[in-house]
Design goal:
The complex is a heterodimer. By secondary structure, chain A is α/β, with parallel strands linked by helices. Chain A has 17 helices and 22 strands. In chain A, 32% of the residues lie in helices and 26% in strands. In chain A, a hairpin with a 2-residue loop joins strand 4 (62-67) and strand 5 (70-72). In chain A, helix 14 (407-420) runs parallel beside helix 15 (437-452). Classes of the chains: A alpha/beta, B mainly alpha.
Chain lengths: 511, 480
């Protein structure tokens, strides 16, 4: 056995129960000094819970923790910081209107009252230099890109003296290039003697950056392996508990007439700034048009403009030849446009209402659900039962409050509702984001079935693998402009990545 | 389960021929109306003798449980009810205990005794005070049980109903007080369901009250069957339109309804002062309108001193109607969706702004009805300072009832009981009615922050989702 002191983190027999679930079931987890250790698992496998226990955000019901070989009790985030553990959450905890330096010293005792920001900024610049983390300490957070904000979070942890860095799904919001840069940073940190734990469910990046990998499944440790001694297939099997098909079986598309035609579209974002500039594209029946791009480059605005939730400032939108520019969501819906919004809980569902009530959100005015002005309870429950069965939504019952469903089932619920309306066009935004491998497979299959049934699909996604495997053509959106549209069979990840970062494709195609 | 059963019943009823259904309806409505006097009398007696009523209920439940497996079924049924009621009941109990301490330690005699060192004597006086005060509170709200029993005996002995009527005055007052509370509570609850915080119920009550009274005295000579409904509807619509101003402002300009309803309150207060002491004043210097015509009275079930009137039935009907509207109609569905998640509502093709205006209007109609029931049922006029805070209490009430019509009715009854008792407590024990306001406030604090009650009585923590669901109801109301 190895000497315990060579472990930066040792967690033994960690059990954490939440009402109704055991999130962590006597987990043993150990991270060596100076390694990059990936924590891999499906959604709900207990990865984040385990790390939140390490960071003092949750208290374990059972189990012990050793940090640097010493038994430690982490009762609060403060304890974790004192032990040298820094956690970077999926959602950044930054104050938008403050500067980088102000954010980094947030919550620290050190400048007791008088704030010498210049001194802090010098220290931060030095630290940033050491780890090749390019940032301007005087910049305000809202001016920074997501990748830069993540660097601030890393700096924040380092500034607090963290030697063990825990990152929760750090690449979810990054372009491939930014992700690569992050991995370089992580490697240089490890070279400086830091230890990194990073949570992910993406197999590719785990294989490329981690030294060792621990796979969690249903709150238990499935295995801990050397990255060099395993394969993507093995990892996927351990994660899901069965063989996984990476490429969804896809037939050749048989595109028909144009269903969606967008011409010179312009729209503003919530801050009133131009979010879409002269966007033109078409989607045919029986075709999936993928839209690639880093989040925040106009994807949401594009989807909302099409479905009538966002005013169009310029240009035209036609569905099956009929103009729907600046029509109400209801009118667009009635022309056969379905919408899977990015924000399931925020706008796709009403989580405080029941499953049955959510399933009638789009058809509550039509018979048989509605009889003049009255809702027909029998029709509603029949409708719900049918859809729950057909789309395999796991719910205790149709009267269950929707908030109690898992992410994958929430998405299936939305898909069930939208597909059952037999739409001509489906606008789907990040349909598999945050879903585990199994649910992702199901959602993709449903979308492909919809395509094969002759529906047109506009698929907005951040996941290039998904776009490449699902779409027939891919458009890349950068700062509200279409950088190019390519056939997905001919598309290369590098070329797409460059377009996503704002570099127009070269004339000769870069072959 | 029960819904399925009732749905089956509804289908069976719908299968009957129209004339059978009409006759059945006429019988179902007509018989209780004809017997209303007696039904109300039984209700009041049952309320006055509530421990006996509870016992009878338990026996009934036991009989009901026999075909369903007897005691285990009954135990689980009672357990479920008790779990729901534990926090409210303990909140009321705790608030009464604290209220008792306040009564004890705000009494001059107790202070005098304490300052001269007679602690035991001070305690004795204090406890006596509390006993007298709470005795009066109980009697004001439920009557004196031995009086009721004695009156029943005398009535059976052929002395007529008068003694019973005098004895059940307490229960009647409780019900009378709960009528405006039910309407106003429903008003605020309906707003909550739509994500709107209607602080303006107080003002809408006043507008509805005055409007109904104006109709009541302006159209003399109309038959009651026209005059009374007209006065009721006009009062409701007046309150509704007043509230719809706030809904309209929210929809058009984004002005938050909390601010606008508060401002509309001030406007309505000043407006009614001017009306009552100006154009509508009947006898100079009284700041009061003339009496309404008798054809606009909400009739009373029994004679003096039992003032319970048909507004009570109207209030219960309104609660049923609100529940039906919210859960069984498309507009109600839109309203709840908009309240729970406006983004999803917009995405579902609903007009959020239209729903806001509609919800405010309906909320105002209900608040207006609170004023109508007071104006046509109790005072028969409108006088300066007539609203009496029902509209503000209603906010607490809607929270207490978790914005559910049945919860609101229950909460309104608690408030009605306290208010009826408070009046008697002041007149008999000399304890100011403000004590009851303290008790009401404490009940709300405890119910809004159940952690306090759980800590005091060492309850186990409830399931997380229940708490979350509760939080959702409470925080949604801010419409943020």
């Amino acid at each position: 056995m190895e000497d315990t002191s060579s472990f930066a983190i040792r967690m033994e027999g960690i059990t954490k129960r939440f009402p109704g679930v055991v999130a962590n079931n006597s987990i043993d987890f150990a991270v060596r000094q100076g390694e990059i250790h990936a924590l891999l698992g499906e959604n709900g496998a207990g990865k984040t819970t385990l790390m939140k226990i390490l960071a003092g955000l949750y208290q374990p019901d059972e189990g012990q923790i050793w940090i640097d070989g010493r038994a430690a009790s982490v009762h609060s985030p403060r304890d974790a910081i004192d032990l040298g553990i820094g956690m970077i959450h999926q959602h950044f905890m930054l104050v938008e209107s403050h500067t980088v330096a102000e954010n980094i010293i947030l919550g620290l005792d050190v400048p007791r009252f008088v704030l010498n920001l210049e001194k802090v900024e010098r220290e931060i610049a030095k630290l940033a230099d050491q780890y090749h983390l390019l940032v301007d300490p005087g910049a305000r957070i809202w001016q920074l890109s997501v990748g830069e904000q993540q660097r601030i979070e890393i700096l924040k942890a380092l500034y607090r003296g963290a030697r063990i860095l825990v990152m929760d799904e750090p690449t979810a919001v990054l372009t491939p290039q930014e992700a690569k840069q992050l991995f370089n940073t992580l490697r240089s940190m490890v070279a400086e003697g830091h230890t990194v734990v990073f949570i992910s469910h993406k197999l590719g990046e785990v294989m490329s950056v981690a030294d060792r990998i621990t796979v969690l499944r249903r709150g238990e440790v499935e295995a801990t392996v050397q990255a060099s001694e395993t394969s993507r297939q093995d990892l996927a099997r351990m994660m899901v508990g069965r063989e996984v098909l990476f490429r969804v079986g896809k037939r050749e598309s048989e595109p028909g007439d144009v269903v969606l035609e967008i011409d010179g579209l312009g729209a503003l974002n919530d801050k009133g700034l131009e979010a879409l500039r002269d966007v033109s594209l078409t989607v045919r029946h029986g075709e999936i048009l993928g839209v690639a791009g880093v989040a925040g480059n106009g994807q949401r605005e594009l989807a909302e403009a099409i479905v009538g939730l966002r005013p169009v400032t310029r240009g035209q939108i036609r569905v099956d030849g009929e103009g729907v520019t600046n029509r109400t969501p209801r009118e667009v819906m009635d022309r056969g446009v379905a919408y899977i919004p990015a924000d399931r809980i925020g706008s796709g569902l009403v989580v405080n209402l029941s499953v049955a009530e959510n399933l009638i959100l789009k058809c509550y005015r039509d018979p048989p659900i509605c009889n003049w002005f009255f809702l027909d309870g029998d029709a509603i429950s029949g409708h719900a039962q049918e859809l729950v069965r057909a789309y395999d939504v796991m719910t205790p019952g149709i009267e269950t409050r929707t908030r109690l469903l898992s992410g994958g089932n929430l998405q299936k619920l939305i898909l069930a509702r939208e597909i059952s309306s037999k739409p001509a066009l489906m606008v789907s935004v990040y349909p598999t984001r945050g879903l585990d491998v199994g649910a992702t497979e199901a959602v993709r299959r449903l979308l492909l079935e919809q395509r094969d049934a002759g529906g047109g699909i506009l698929l907005i996604s951040e996941d290039l693998d998904e776009l490449l495997s699902m779409s027939d053509r891919i458009a890349v959106l950068y700062e509200g402009r279409i950088m190019g549209i390519v056939e997905s069979q001919e598309a290369r990840v590098e070329a797409l990545g460059l377009m996503m970062a704002g570099t127009a494709p070269e004339e000769d195609g870069g072959e | 389960m029960t819904e399925e059963r009732s749905a089956g019943l509804a289908a069976r009823i719908a299968a009957l021929p129209l004339w059978v259904r009409l006759v059945a309806l006429a019988v179902l409505v007509g018989v209780p109306v004809l017997l209303s006097k007696w039904l109300v009398l039984i209700l009041l007696i049952a309320l006055g003798l509530w421990p006996i009523t509870v016992l009878v209920g338990l026996v009934g439940l036991a009989l009901f449980s026999i075909p369903r497996g007897g005691w285990p079924w009954m135990r689980s049924w009672l357990g479920a009810r008790l779990r729901d009621l534990a926090i409210p009941l303990l909140s009321i109990f705790t608030a009464l205990v604290i209220g008792a301490l306040v009564i004890m330690f705000t009494d001059a005699e107790v202070y005098a005794a304490l300052s001269s060192g007679q602690i035991v004597y001070a305690l004795r006086v204090g406890i006596q005070n509390v006993a007298v005060a709470y005795g009066a509170l109980y009697e004001g709200a439920f009557g004196n049980p031995s009086d009721i029993l004695e009156a029943i005996g005398r009535a059976l002995g052929g002395e007529g109903l008068d003694p019973i009527l005098r004895a059940v005055r307490g229960p009647s007052d409780s019900m009378v007080q709960s009528v405006p509370y039910i309407f106003a509570g429903l008003a605020v609850a309906l707003g909550f369901r739509a994500g709107l915080f209607n602080i303006g119920a107080e003002g809408q009550i006043g507008i509805g009250w005055i409007a109904a009274v104006i109709v009541g005295f302006s159209f003399r000579g109309l038959p009651m069957i026209i005059h009374l409904p007209l006065a009721i509807v006009v009062g409701a619509i007046a309150g509704g339109l007043w509230a719809a101003i706030a809904g309209f402002l929210r929809a058009r300009t984004g002005a938050h309804e909390v601010i606008t309803t508060i401002m509309l309150n001030y406007i309505s207060f000043r407006l009614s002062e001017w009306l009552l002491c100006g154009p509508l004043e009947f006898t100079r210097g009284t700041c009061r309108t003339q009496e309404i015509a008798e054809s606009a009275y909400l009739p009373r079930f029994l004679s003096h001193p039992v003032t319970l009137h048909w507004g009570f039935v109207l209030a219960l009907a309104a609660a049923v109607a609100v529940g039906w509207f919210l859960f069984k109609t498309t507009w109600g569905y839109e309203l709840r969706t908009v309240g729970a998640n406006p983004n999803a509502a917009r995405y579902g093709g609903m007009s959020v702004t239209r729903t806001w205006v509609l919800a405010m209007f309906l909320s105002g109609c209900l608040a207006g009805l609170a004023g109508v029931s007071q104006g046509l049922g109790i005072s028969h006029n409108a006088a300066l300072g007539f609203q009496a805070g029902y509209g503000f209490d209603a906010i607490a009430l809607a929270l207490l009832g978790k914005s559910h019509p049945a919860g609101v009715v229950a909460a309104a009854f608690i408030f009605g009981v306290l208010r009826a008792g408070a009046a008697r407590m002041q007149s008999v024990a000399g304890v100011p009615t403000e004590i009851v306001q303290i008790i009401q406030a404490l009940v709300i604090v405890f119910i809004a922050a159940p952690a306090i009650i759980r800590a005091i009585y060492r309850f186990r923590e409830r399931r997380r989702e229940d708490i979350e669901a509760e939080m959702a109801v409470f925080s949604r109301g801010w419409g943020a």
